[in-house]
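Posting this for the archive.
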Amino acid sequence: MYLFFLGTQKSVSLAEVISVFSSNVEWISDILVLARDEFEDITERARNLGGIPRVDKVIQEFPRTENLESIYRKIASLVEANESKKYTISLSLKSEKDTFLEIKVAAKIIGKNPEGDRQNSIATPTTAFYVTQKGGRNFSIVETKESLLLSETVFIQDPNYWTMIDFDRPHKEKEVGMLPAKLARIMINLSQPLKGSYVFDPFIGLGTIAMQADLLGHRVIGTDINAQNVDYAEENCLWMVKKGISASRDKVFAVHDIRKPYPDNIGKRDITAIVCEPFLGPMRSKPFSSKGEADKSFRQHVRPLLLALLERAGEILPKDCRLVFVKPLSKYIENGQTQWYNPQVQFPIEIWKDWAKDHKLRALEWVQKDSTIGREIVVLTKIK
């Protein structure tokens, strides 16, 4: 069994776990899901996730009535056997327990204080990462409806990795809202391209999705109406090769307007996933003044591109393959209160089905604090 610690955008993180592991998962809390399965190469598979900062393997399952002190003694034996004896411990308990006092009890039994902020009931990913880097171990005690789970971390993201990918590359979106590399990784995982096939981004921009597809081992096709963007995307992908974080895989970049059919050198290739973020509308520093204004902007700037995307994807993608794209969520003011406008895009139900709804998931929203434009990730599966 494994515990997946969800990232800050929880609905999107959960969808990624379901898509990648195809497992029945159980909500434990607002930050944890449990997969009651065993997976081969769990560490390698977890490393390919974007929205899951940490994965634990369940060491032992205890009755819910078990005294926590006996679990602390189990941890003590594990820490004692570890050369560095560094550790962190996290508590996720449904019962009304003072987690700070509990960690003090645990430290007394273990004979050593845990690393990091002991007042934090869940060790931060950064703390856990640096403890494991020093040879330490990270444990969690998680209370479910039926039991208490003792788990140990098997994978944790490097907190500096995504910053490096986003900001060290040669070309960055400074004047427009940047698609985070982490979200690009999640979107590719949601698309589940077949091994050895192409991932296609028809709005390549500066290559964020192409870079992540490459890092995940996929071949890439990228087009854009802007020739400079195509050049910059190529340079960003080449930067990863020069930096030694990516192999030089097959890539096809071209200038193309999505409103026109694709030539055979693109449309006839083995494309099994389309992943993209179309233009989300002009950047704004303030919310729209009304829902009507937000809708007008969407209809003018975004809707025509999304309709063209659906048409082209219908022509290119084989049956059972997925189209994953972003549509904007717009903040507006109504009666002095800020609201979010989520415009709907109609798609032919005889050709596409909504993957999230099919899995009974809520809307896959990605909204950063204080932003005026958010994102909804739409996942469609071609059924015809």
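Residues 291-316 form the longest helix (26 residues). The chain has a mean pLDDT of 91.
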